């Protein structure tokens, strides 16, 4: 069930040596939220994490006390309020950020910019002070703008390393595998597919032509599946009817991505994930493509997979939107 997450079942957890020299400290910023809590649970369940720091502006003492009673090796500490942000991040090797407000029906991800831009800016500034070498995964929306925001803040602080800053788009891949698995009659865990571009509407580019095992859907179904993957976040926002956006599937996807970073830090080879990163693959200066991960973040950007005519059309539609989103993030840091 958890094969994509690579987290241990109880037996694995119990046999894991806590004296491992490969300690990995992970910090979650926004740990008390709809994503933050189940994400922190999945990280606590993993034998790969040895220290788990939970930061939020509310409720972290309770979340940390609760999780700390789970019989796995990770030592859990809660950090509440802005005064404790620096301590939460001190020497973290992986920082995952689901802090900020989610969408309500009728909103776009870009409508979250005004609230969430400042949240990401302040956390990025704290990263520069306390853990400039951390691998950072940004979940907060709008991801397309928040990654440029964090990058500009780190540049200003003189510690920017493009290989270490990731926009987490793993949920798009998880959804693509689920929907294609269902449509093709495959176990979704056997499906792999790159989803490239960004993380909002038309900027999400699923590459069904690169799906493994290969799928042979009629054109109309390829279009319908691609649009469903692009609009899947909105599908959840509508179904939750005012109670927020995807949290549980995002926690699953976020844990998978965070644990891929942890495994890379521990020296595991050939870990490939798509993520939204600084890029020269297209005209957009940030773009998600498959990446080979290593202890220092991106080891190799595997570039643009081969696109068919339909997918080239999706790419063409995505670029102007991505450029606008990126510019908005960069200008925010210049002015604020
Ligand atoms: N990248 C992706 O694929 C996805 C991204 N998201 C985004 O993730 C974000 C969080 O979503 P939810 O967990 O559902 O929201 P939520 O409202 O349930 O939780 C957000 C948490 O962030 C905390 N927070 C707010 N300001 C903060 C600050 N300055 N410092 C630290 N913590 C702060 C809140 O106290 C709250 O606990 C949203 O922006 C949402 O749009 C959601 C789903 C998928
Ligand atoms: O749709 C949203 O607002 C949250 C999100 O990014 C997703 O579920 O993909």
From TrEMBL:
Gene Ontology molecular functions: L-malate dehydrogenase (NAD+) activity
Domain (Lactate/malate dehydrogenase C-terminal) ranges: 170-333
RNA-binding found in the keyword field: no
Catalytic activity: (S)-malate + NAD(+) = oxaloacetate + NADH + H(+)
Keyword Oxidoreductase: yes
Annotated Lactate/malate dehydrogenase N-terminal domain residues: 24-167
InterPro entries per the UniProt record, alphabetical: L-lactate/malate_DH (IPR001557), Lactate/malate_DH_C (IPR022383), Lactate/malate_DH_N (IPR001236), Lactate_DH/Glyco_Ohase_4_C (IPR015955), Malate_DH_type1 (IPR010097), NAD(P)-bd_dom_sf (IPR036291)
Positions of substrate binding: 103, 109, 141, 175
PANTHER family named among the record's database cross-references: MALATE AND LACTATE DEHYDROGENASE, MALATE DEHYDROGENASE, MITOCHONDRIAL
NCBIfam families on file: MDH_euk_gproteo
Family: Belongs to the LDH/MDH superfamily. MDH type 1 family.
Protein name: Malate dehydrogenase, mitochondrial
Gene label: MDH2
